[in-house]
Amino acid sequence: MSSEEQTAQEALTFADLGLSPKVLSAVTDAGYTVPTPIQAGAIPHALQGKDVLGIAQTGTGKTASFVLPMLTRLEKGRARARMPRTLILEPTRELAAQVEENFVKYGKNHPKLNIALLIGGVSFDEQDKKLERGADVLIATPGRLLDHRERGKLLLNGVEILVIDEADRMLDMGFIPDIERICEMIPSLTRQTLFFSATMPPEITKLTEKFLHAPVRVEVSKAASTGTNITQRLVKSGPKPWDKRAALRELINAESGELKNAIIFCNRKVEVSELFRSLIKYDFDAGALHGDMDQRARMQMLANFRDGKLKLLVASDVAARGLDIPDVSHVFNYDVPIHAEDYVHRIGRTGRAGRSGKSFTIVTKNDAKYLAAIEKLTGLKIEWHDGDLSTVVASEGEDEAPRRGRGAPRRAGRKDEGERKRGGRERSQRHAEKPAREPEAVDIDAVAADAPVEKRERKEAIRSDNAERKARPERAEQPRRDDRPRRDDHRGGRPDRSEQNRRQREQDDDGTVGFGDDMPAFMRVSAKV
DNA sequence: AAAAAAC
């Protein structure tokens, strides 16, 4: 594209793109007049029925660049039962739901538009009913889509427009075989394909060669890989979880003047859970988001965070890309991401739409090589916030190596692999929180679908617990935290985790019945504000 | 080395 064309396009308004009056009016009502570069580039071609290869990061207005032309094109024709007219594939459930919201928003003048969202973790029947009724727009994650299809509830040969969104992320997640299968189910002669990816690794290029016909390539210049409006800092910490949690708390407090809301990224789901619990204990206004959580909790957390009912969101990389969370003032990396690109995506959650943002990455001595990779990728030496690792004060916590030789010999009564791992983690967790003398915990295990336990086990535990609770509604005064085993005897007579949980649940008995029956207490806690 | 995604 020449620079003249570029300038000409910047002067464009949505009214110049060829969208239908209904769509245009919804766009205007939403307060938009000038399309973003990807929208200006893709919409006219999409309206003409051409295949489009859009290379754009999230936050560039990519979603509207396919939603708007699709709505326009859907005005002609009607959907037949079980034969959706369009299909949009998304890598995560949240993204799929987000696209649905866009269709609702811009499709408000299309009262007859049927939208079906096929994602995992929610009821099958409702989705099936929508399919039966005939969907104009089908938005799906690959797993659930294939599930419906295998049950014979879905025919894909009537699909007129196929959208593959976040293709590079699909690749990362191992979805490419699924995507290929799905593409092959849709007749290529009658199909228009819109394909979006932030980057074009060889596998993705191959995919586009296979499934796109003479695509129009629309590339949006990458926003400087890590936006210059983001202030990035490194924060030293000891290597232990309690060191890192303390460093984070200190940081949040120090930033409290500027901190409007923040996402705190962890590398692992268990860490999300642990950190979330810890923050709640310290009375921070925090929520959690990761893929093992109950789908309703995921949605609710995200909604609360977006609506400003929740200040801190502790999340796995499920939240790193694509989620449209406007106006996050801070991003904290509780862990240095193992993949350098993830760093870019994570901190890209702040400093959006030209606003300024701050990111802090907690670094321990174990993170050197990941940090080096990040600095290499971004071509940037990230400054230390308050002295580098050489100034870390030694932790007062337990020795690095787990102590042995106390209690029963290790061989006796050895637990299975999973249990042993969990036990170890809990031990360090408990210990970690000891020195700080935290206020009593909100019990999260009782309700959170995010504990590192099989779902079934969890449900079972809650069910039996509820039964027990009913049987004994009244109970003697609870022991206080100070009566619990202390620092040095935590290896010995520590009450069983489930015992602790049970007591805690009895303490804040709130009538929570179990998954799916009631809103988890931790969500209520966060919603209180 | 981790997350995500199907019952």
UniProtKB/TrEMBL annotation:
Checking InterPro entries in the record gives: DEAD/DEAH_box_helicase_dom, DEAD/DEAH_RhlB, DEAD_box_RNA_helicase, Helicase_ATP-bd, Helicase_C-like, P-loop_NTPase, RNA-helicase_DEAD-box_CS, RNA_helicase_DEAD_Q_motif
Q: Where is this region: Disordered?
A: 393-529
Compositionally biased residues, Basic and acidic residues: 414-440, 452-506
Q: What is the lineage of its organism?
A: Bacteria, Pseudomonadati, Pseudomonadota, Alphaproteobacteria, Hyphomicrobiales
Q: Specify the enzyme's EC class, one word.
A: hydrolase
Give the protein name, as stated in the record.
Answer: DEAD-box ATP-dependent RNA helicase RhpA
Q: What residues does the Helicase C-terminal domain cover?
A: 247-400
Q: Which organism is it from?
A: Neomesorhizobium albiziae
Q: Which GO terms describe its cellular component?
A: cytosol
